[in-house]
Design brief:
By secondary structure, this protein is an all-alpha fold. The protein is built from 3 helices and no strands.
Length: 119
Amino acid sequence: MTDKTPSSLADDAAEAVGALSRRTQDSEGGQGWQQPEEACATVGALVTMAMRLPEVFDQICAFIEHLEFRAHLRSNRDTLESDLLDTYAGLVEAKEAAERLHAALSLAQSGLRPLAYKS
Protein backbone atom coordinates (compact mmCIF):
# COMPACT_ATOMS: atom_id res chain seq x y z
CA MET A 1 0.00 0.00 0.00
CA THR A 2 1.16 3.53 -0.63
CA ASP A 3 1.60 6.31 1.86
CA LYS A 4 0.89 8.97 -0.77
CA THR A 5 -2.05 11.32 -0.44
CA PRO A 6 -4.98 11.10 -2.88
CA SER A 7 -3.92 14.36 -4.53
CA SER A 8 -0.36 13.08 -4.94
CA LEU A 9 -1.65 9.88 -6.55
CA ALA A 10 -3.86 11.95 -8.87
CA ASP A 11 -0.80 14.03 -9.82
CA ASP A 12 1.08 10.79 -10.58
CA ALA A 13 -1.81 9.61 -12.77
CA ALA A 14 -1.85 12.91 -14.66
CA GLU A 15 1.90 12.69 -15.21
CA ALA A 16 1.55 9.10 -16.43
CA VAL A 17 -1.09 10.14 -18.98
CA GLY A 18 1.20 12.96 -20.13
CA ALA A 19 4.09 10.51 -20.51
CA LEU A 20 1.82 8.15 -22.44
CA SER A 21 0.82 10.98 -24.77
CA ARG A 22 4.45 11.86 -25.44
CA ARG A 23 5.43 8.21 -25.95
CA THR A 24 2.63 7.55 -28.44
CA GLN A 25 3.14 10.65 -30.62
CA ASP A 26 4.99 8.71 -33.31
CA SER A 27 2.30 6.93 -35.32
CA GLU A 28 4.90 5.56 -37.74
CA GLY A 29 6.07 2.89 -35.28
CA GLY A 30 9.08 4.62 -33.81
CA GLN A 31 9.77 4.39 -30.12
CA GLY A 32 6.08 4.31 -29.19
CA TRP A 33 4.48 1.62 -31.34
CA GLN A 34 5.56 -1.61 -33.03
CA GLN A 35 2.45 -3.80 -33.38
CA PRO A 36 -1.32 -3.16 -33.36
CA GLU A 37 -1.48 -5.42 -30.30
CA GLU A 38 0.37 -2.67 -28.42
CA ALA A 39 -2.42 -0.22 -29.24
CA CYS A 40 -4.95 -2.79 -28.02
CA ALA A 41 -3.04 -3.29 -24.75
CA THR A 42 -2.73 0.47 -24.27
CA VAL A 43 -6.45 0.98 -24.81
CA GLY A 44 -7.10 -1.96 -22.48
CA ALA A 45 -5.18 -0.25 -19.69
CA LEU A 46 -7.13 2.96 -20.37
CA VAL A 47 -10.37 0.94 -20.19
CA THR A 48 -9.34 -0.15 -16.70
CA MET A 49 -8.49 3.42 -15.71
CA ALA A 50 -11.81 4.72 -17.00
CA MET A 51 -13.67 1.93 -15.20
CA ARG A 52 -12.10 3.02 -11.89
CA LEU A 53 -12.71 6.75 -12.23
CA PRO A 54 -16.43 6.77 -11.28
CA GLU A 55 -15.61 5.20 -7.91
CA VAL A 56 -12.98 7.88 -7.27
CA PHE A 57 -15.53 10.60 -8.01
CA ASP A 58 -18.03 8.92 -5.67
CA GLN A 59 -15.39 8.80 -2.92
CA ILE A 60 -14.50 12.46 -3.36
CA CYS A 61 -18.19 13.30 -3.13
CA ALA A 62 -18.59 11.15 0.00
CA PHE A 63 -15.61 12.89 1.62
CA ILE A 64 -17.04 16.36 0.95
CA GLU A 65 -20.50 15.23 2.13
CA HIS A 66 -18.93 13.92 5.34
CA LEU A 67 -17.27 17.28 5.98
CA GLU A 68 -20.48 19.11 5.10
CA PHE A 69 -22.57 16.94 7.44
CA ARG A 70 -20.18 17.64 10.31
CA ALA A 71 -20.16 21.39 9.50
CA HIS A 72 -16.42 21.31 8.81
CA LEU A 73 -16.56 23.30 5.59
CA ARG A 74 -16.44 26.98 4.79
CA SER A 75 -16.01 28.88 1.56
CA ASN A 76 -13.26 31.44 1.10
CA ARG A 77 -15.77 33.33 -1.06
CA ASP A 78 -18.58 33.12 1.51
CA THR A 79 -20.65 31.15 -1.02
CA LEU A 80 -20.59 27.71 0.58
CA GLU A 81 -24.01 26.57 -0.63
CA SER A 82 -23.29 27.54 -4.23
CA ASP A 83 -19.79 26.06 -4.09
CA LEU A 84 -21.14 22.77 -2.78
CA LEU A 85 -23.82 22.64 -5.48
CA ASP A 86 -21.14 23.19 -8.13
CA THR A 87 -18.91 20.56 -6.51
CA TYR A 88 -21.60 17.90 -6.41
CA ALA A 89 -22.91 18.71 -9.90
CA GLY A 90 -19.39 18.64 -11.32
CA LEU A 91 -18.59 15.30 -9.70
CA VAL A 92 -21.83 13.75 -10.99
CA GLU A 93 -21.03 15.06 -14.48
CA ALA A 94 -17.45 13.75 -14.23
CA LYS A 95 -18.73 10.34 -13.17
CA GLU A 96 -21.12 10.20 -16.12
CA ALA A 97 -18.36 11.31 -18.50
CA ALA A 98 -16.04 8.61 -17.12
CA GLU A 99 -18.76 6.02 -17.68
CA ARG A 100 -19.14 7.19 -21.28
CA LEU A 101 -15.35 7.13 -21.68
CA HIS A 102 -15.26 3.57 -20.38
CA ALA A 103 -17.93 2.50 -22.86
CA ALA A 104 -16.18 4.21 -25.78
CA LEU A 105 -12.78 2.75 -24.91
CA SER A 106 -14.32 -0.71 -24.51
CA LEU A 107 -15.75 -0.38 -28.01
CA ALA A 108 -12.36 0.71 -29.37
CA GLN A 109 -10.64 -2.19 -27.63
CA SER A 110 -13.17 -4.59 -29.13
CA GLY A 111 -12.34 -3.25 -32.57
CA LEU A 112 -8.58 -3.43 -31.95
CA ARG A 113 -8.54 -7.03 -30.69
CA PRO A 114 -8.67 -8.75 -34.10
CA LEU A 115 -6.17 -6.39 -35.75
CA ALA A 116 -2.71 -7.71 -36.61
CA TYR A 117 0.31 -6.34 -38.44
CA LYS A 118 0.57 -7.20 -42.13
CA SER A 119 4.00 -6.93 -43.73
